Amino acid sequence: MTREIKRPEIRKNEILDAAQKFFFQKGYEKTSIQDIINNLGIAKGTFYHYFTSKMDLLDKLSDRTTSEISAAIKPIVDSDMDAIAKFNRFFREAAAIKMSRIDVLTVILKVIFKDENIIIREKMYTRVVKKNVPMFSKIINQGVQEGLFKTPYPDEAAEMMLQIGRTLNADISKLLLRKDETLEHLLELIKKKTKMYEYTMEKILGAPEGSFKVYKPEDFEGMVRFIKKNLEQKNNNV
Fold first, then answer.
1. CB distance 39 to 22 below 8 Å
2. Cα–Cα dist 100/60, whole Å
3. At how many degrees (to 10) do helices 154-177 and 183-205 cross?
4. DSSP character string of 29-81
5. Contact of 185 with 165, CB cutoff 8 Å
6. pLDDT 10s digit of each residue in the chain, 238 long?
7. C-alpha angle with apex 164: 88 to 227, nearest 5 degrees?
8. Is-contact 158 136, C-beta < 8 A?
C-alpha cells in the first residue's frame, strides 16, 4: 500500500497532535514512540525525520504551545490600549490560552520537574523568555512615552520582569506537584506569590501602585483544580 505523502509541516503537526493525545491519556512515561507511529500509520523513519527522541518530541510540543500563546498575545501588544491596560490584558489572555492548552501543559509540568530533566526545563524556560522579551520591551517603552512608567532601562526591565516571572512560574509549578497540599492552601500560596509579582513589576517600572492585575481568582482556580485532579488520578493509576 502506498503511503500518503504530506507536506512536512502538516506531517510534523500530526505527530505532535498524536503525541499530545497519548501523553495526556496514557502519561508520558507509558507512551512509546511505537504508539504514535502505529496510530498515524507512518514509518519509523518518518518519525525520526522530524524528532530525535520522545523527549525531543515533548520539547517541540512545548515550543509549539508557547509559540501559539505568543502569537495570540501579539495583537494586544499592537493594539491602541495604554501600556498598563496592555500588560493586564496580556496576563489575562495568557491565562485563558493556557487553560485552553491545559492538557499539554499538565504533561509538560509533570515531566520537566523531574531532577533528570533539568536541562530540558531550563531550555524551555529560556525559550519562553526569549519569545516574550520583545513584546514586553515594546509595551514598557510605550509606557515610558505615556508617562505611566518611570524607568531609564525599559529593555533591561523587560528581561528582568520575565526572568522573575520565570521564577514565579517554577515556584507555582512545584507547588502544584506537591501531593500534600489542599486546593485551598495552594490557591492562597499562588495568590501571595502573584501579588508579590505585581508589586515587583510596579517597582521595577515605577508604575503607580495597584496598576497591575496579574492575579485573578477565576483565571487560576480552574487551572489549579484541573492540574491537581489530573495529577492525583495519574498517581492513583501508577
1. yes
2. 18
3. 170
4. TT--HHHHHHHHT--HHHHHHH-SSHHHHHHHHHHHHHHHHHHHHHHHHTSSS
5. no
6. 445 556 888 999 999 999 999 998 888 999 999 999 999 999 999 999 999 999 999 999 989 988 888 898 999 999 999 999 999 999 988 888 888 888 888 888 888 888 888 888 888 888 888 999 999 999 999 999 999 999 999 999 999 999 999 899 888 888 888 877 788 888 898 889 999 999 999 999 999 999 998 877 777 787 788 777 776 665 555 4
7. 75
8. yes
Distance CA 199, CA 190 (A): 14
Angle between helical axes of 8-26 and 54-77 (0-180°, round to 10) = 110
Which residue in this structure is represented by grid cell 504514535?
A: 36
Q: pTM (2 decimals)?
A: 0.84
The dihedral region occupied by 201, where left means phi > 0, alpha psi between -120 and 50, and beta the remainder, is: alpha
Tell me 178's DSSP state: -
Residues with Cβ within 8 Å of residue 170, at least 6 apart in sequence: 125
Domains of the chain and CATH, by start: 1-51 (1.10.10.60), 54-237 (1.10.357.10)
Residue type, 231: L
In residues, how long is the chain?
238
Q: Which amino acid is at 24?
A: F
